[in-house]
Amino acid sequence: MNFQTVSILSLTAFIAMESAWHAPTAFCQESLGSHENKSANTSKKYELVWSDEFDQEGPPDPKNWTFEYGFERNEELQWYQPENASCENGKLVITAKRERVMNPFFVAGTKNWKKNRQHAEYTSACITTRGLHSWTFGRIEVRARIDARKGLWPAIWTVGESGNWPDAGEIDIMEYYQGKLLANACWSSGKRWKATWDSARIPLSDFGGATWATEFHTWRMDWDEERIELFVNDSLLNTIELSQTVGKHDNLSSPFHQPHYLLLNLAIGGTNGGDPSKTEFPATFEVDYVRVYQSTFDK
What we know:
The chain is mainly β. The chain has helices spanning 8-15, 209-213, 270-273, and strands spanning 28-29, 47-52, 66-67, 78-80, 85-88, 91-102, 119-124, 126-128, 138-145, 152-160, 170-177, 180-188, 195-203, 217-223, 227-232, 235-241, 260-268, 283-294. Strands 2, 4, 5, 6, 7, 9, 14, 15, 16 and 18 form a 10-stranded mixed β-sheet that branches. Strands 1-13-12-11-10-17-8-3 form an 8-stranded mixed β-sheet. The model is unreliable at 1-37 (pLDDT under 50).
């Protein structure tokens, strides 16, 4: 999500950050059954170690968040920029707009999708704790309201600090696109830039459809050295056993035994987001709070 005007130095840094995240492949659960299971961590006690309640008006707190800039991943349509994220009335509001902005990295004739578009037709924001805060194990809880209209792709997710994607590991506490709510994790498949996925994809209609999406809900990840459990409103959506997530590329350890940083974003279109052309903008992704807990065993 966006905070302050980008400096020339920041712009230069972002040119070097070519990423290829979020390209789903195997291990997809389409049924609702996974979120009927009971958590294995119900007896664990947690204490709050970090939070942002977004109570200060204006840009997100720079002590907690940095931001992405420009085209980032998945051939998405939005241009990420700081001014599309702000704290208002005790909530973080990420606003996606239909507006044309110049691409300063444009190169005519290149095959690089980040550079062959002279303009972006949409803007939005992605904020991240990268370089500021990261955690290994514990509980992350986010209360938020998504926009479930066509072409929109909100997400609450983490990426490991060490290694390229997907070797670093990715945990999607929440993704929504094309009528489905997702709870995922991915890791190395052994091929560069190709991930192995464990995904639960549940139709939004199973929760109450468009009406459900107009309300705030609480997404949660419980994560320890054995498994990751992903919830919405205390309903278990997916369990990822870490014994099955051993990487096959840069190292032989699970990418989920290292610190992960957090990202919040509202993407548009791209490889999974769908067609936004008939959607009325602006669109918003609102976050009431982010809270991180750890048990005495996690520290």
